[in-house]
Amino acid sequence: MALEHAILVSLLEQPGSGYELARRFERSIGRFWTATHQQIYRVLKRMEGDGWVTAEEVGQDGRPDKRSFSVAGQGRAVLVEWLRAPVQPEAVRHELAVKIRGAAFTDLAGRASLITEVERYRAEHEALLGRYLNGEKRDFPDTSSLDAGQRLQHAVLRGGIAYERMLLDWLDDVLDTLRAL
């Protein structure tokens, strides 16, 4: 997937400025696709030049005007073509998993250091799960009245929640295994 596709999806959900897009990436899209503010602005400029998005100047009281982007017909066509293309399973690259396998070739001090690293990694993912669960409560308090787009957004969030829970279970298993060595 290219950043362009994630931006097109976000702008179809709701037009916005580059700053607003960056905030969405931090808050929700970042659950499955990350981008810096600079990357978003650079790609928006290229997408505008390619005719995929249009920008409208929006005046703001006491602040400089902002540019609000929306998807143009050509951008929608690009997205539809991309949506129809098959998706290949992603190759998993997991540095921590390689380190865990390597624990068989280290001494007790090396394994103790790895346990500390797995505990740190686990704490980060536990905090991320907490943010996802809080976001779910905030953004989807009543699932009975969601429109199609909201239901799909919620499905992606539930996938992130399930992934984090699976990862935490696996990390608990890893910690039990390392401590038993």
Set out the fold topology.
Elements: H1 3-13, H2 18-27, H3 37-49, E1 53-60, E2 63-71, H4 73-84, H5 95-102, H6 108-139, H7 148-180
Antiparallel strand pairs: 1-2
Task: Report on this structure.
There is one protein chain. This protein is mainly alpha-helical and 181 residues long. The chain is 66% helix and 9% strand. Strand 1 (53-60) and strand 2 form a beta hairpin. The chain is elongated and about 60 Å long.
What is the first-to-last residue Cα distance? 41 Å
Largest sheet: 2 strands, antiparallel
Strand order of the largest sheet: 1-2
Q: Which percent range describes the beta-strand content? A: 5-15%
Supply the number of helical segments: 7
Summing up helix and strand content along with how strands pair, one would put the structural category as mainly alpha
**Poorly predicted sequence stretches spanning 5 or more consecutive residues:** none
Order of helices and strands: HHHEEHHHH
Question: How much is the average pLDDT?
Answer: 92
Indicate the percent of residues in helices.
55-70%
Radius of gyration: 21 Å
